[in-house]
Amino acid sequence: MTQASWLSLQGLAGRGAALDFGKFDERQVLSLAIALEEDDARIYNTYADVLAADYPDTARLFRGMAAEEDDHRHRLIELYRKLFGERILLIRRQDVRGFMERKPLWLLQPLDLEKIREQAGIMEADSRRFYAQAARRAGNAALRQLLGDLAAEESRHETKAEALGDEFLSAAVLRKEHTTQQRLFMLQFVQPGLAGLMDGSVSTLAPLFAAAFATRNTGSTFLVGLAAAIGAGISMAFAEALSDDGALTGRGSPLLRGLVIGAMTMLGGVGHALPYLIPNFQVATTLAVIVVVAELLTIAWVRKRYMDTPFSLAVLQVVVGGLLVFALGILIGSA
User: Fold this and answer.
1) Is there a single domain that holds both residue 239 and residue 161?
2) Which of 329, 302, 328 is nearest to 317 (CA)?
3) CA 194/CA 183 separation, integer angstroms
4) CB-based contacts of 297, cutoff 8 Å, min separation 6
5) Is residue 179, in this structure, part of any structural domain at all?
6) For a Cys-Cys bond, which of 40, 177, 240, 305 suits 261, CB 3.0-4.6 Å?
7) How does pLDDT run across 9-21, given as a tens digit for each residue?
């Protein structure tokens, strides 16, 4: 490869231009392979870092996979040094047209072990296809042999990962990690979502039905209900987001919890306001009452399903309390 073509390649990569892998020479292919192994090892180590606190055994699994990728990188660099010297071309996967992408960790949120393991499987399959295609195009015997060997190793990597899983991920460990994942889901989504739904459904009952029976105007009642729902949602979102950063409680991102609780609060408040889009006051009020009962029973069921609260106790806590607020709103509006 000439100095001019090397400078041209570096300029294209620096500007983020798409390179055609079909036109790569052996030096470019080997440089790209080194970069891919570096990326994959870094991704696996990142998975391990993120999972270490709650899923230590799975973190060890990904440490082992990262170590294998490092071994591949060392072998690639050793051959590159023999064939082309010390200067490795800076080619990244995003510089190559149509090349395999790696999904950022934040797109896997909420953190799901199955999603991460599935992503790891996709990474290994992509690497196997890359090495198989590159080996077919390689003219140098040593390079063709190494690329072919790595293609075979990537093909076996899934089996190796399963072997590592058998070593590190026993049935007891998997049960423990499943329990931990359920706990995190509860802390980060179910609890704030349920708190928001309860607050939105109950706290907006009094102003909505007070306005309804005071004015008997469905349009005005809907606006009062909408304003109460949005106001309650904003208030709950800020309160949750500023309550704690999740570092000590394990409750996850405060921004995410704030969005969840704010959205559910607004949803809980808007639900029984929507019937007042109907012009007929009697029909709208009857439908709103039905929606209120359905909302309260749904909350009671969610508490039973996710919070292990006996249904009778959940009904007492949610439905009876909600109906008292509902009656208070009617009483004030009729005064």
Assistant:
1) no
2) 302
3) 15
4) 315, 319
5) no
6) 240
7) 444 444 444 677 8
